[in-house]
Amino acid sequence: xxxxxxxxxxxxxxxxxxxxxxxxxxxxxxxxxxxxxxxxxxxxxxxxxxxxxxxxxxxxxxxxxxxxxxxxxxxxxxxxxxxxxxxxxxxxxxxxxxxxxxxxxxxxxxxxxxxxxxxxxxxxxxxxxxxxxxxxxxxxxxxxxxxxxxxxxxxxxxxx
Amino acid sequence: xxxxxxxxxxxxxxxxxxxxxxxxxxxxxxxxxxxxxxxxxxxxxxxxxxxxxxxxxxxxxxxxxxxxxxxxxxxxxxxxxxxxxxxxxxxxxxxxxxxxxxxxxxxxxxxxxxxxxxxxxxxxxxxxxxxxxxxxxxxxxxxxxxxxxxxxxxxxxxxx
DNA sequence: GCCATTTATCTTGACGTCAAGATATGCCGT
DNA sequence: ACGGCATATCTTGACGTCAAGATAAATGGC
Lengths: 160, 160
Known about the structure:
CATH superfamily of the largest domain in chain A: Winged helix-like DNA-binding domain superfamily/Winged helix DNA-binding domain
Strand content of chain A: 5-15%
Oligomer: homodimer
Order of helices and strands of chain A: HHHEHHEEHH
Number of strands of chain A: 3
């Protein structure tokens, strides 16, 4: 009987006409993702980053040398609006972790490049972040992890 | 090969020392919850509510007559800060969907009560919201839904 | 070559959220 | 009764996000 079960019991009492199966799955998913986001945020904060800024730095890092992508490339990989991405880049630029360099091939565009400090920051944070993700999922057996991943993949395929 | 797979391939190329199993689960969960939140928001918007305001109205509704709870009760059921709850109640009060009534038993406190308009709004939205949740999960068989729910319950139990 | 359209990024104003602290009331031991 | 601690709510200031629109450069049809 977890927190979501209590909600479902209330609904079944008050509105027995409403089916609660989907409610349970959606409710657990929402609460879980909130908890996970907070856990992730906490570890990255210890490395001086927010999960938002880490997202951008990590996207640049995993794109490989020379660690440069346009704001449009970053946008297509991160599920945020263009205004949000501009703001994220502004913050990272102020912190000296990325810099905007001109794109010689297209002057509408610009390239966002990891600085030395930015590369150091993301390398340091990435290890801790991955270790934290492993900690958070360590309660599951290998089989359960595979099962969960498969179900999430199928669910996600509804949208992407 | 979904969006998350592409990210994992990049990491395995750039940082083969990092294990990607947990990254995959966490990444899919995050993207999925973002998609689901947007879908939910859209349906509630058609009923003049945000998911935030619906959360409060639904909590009051499922608590049963007389549909009154203190801000503290609402807080303990919704994973937001006290400042956020004050703001949500302010908005709902301005919209005429709830009202603050004095709590005769404890004058530090106050009771948040559904108005007639608030009750009508939540009853209308709840049906559409549940139907939407069922739509979003309809790609799964009964067995898959049970499996997913069980895994999410176990994962959530890590935190609650 | 020129103008209309498309593409890429940035700007603006509004919203929801949070952490930290302020305020006001209740409670309890003496 | 009273002082001090606990509890309940609200306030403040800062952030991150979004939708809509502004700006500027590239492209394509004529």
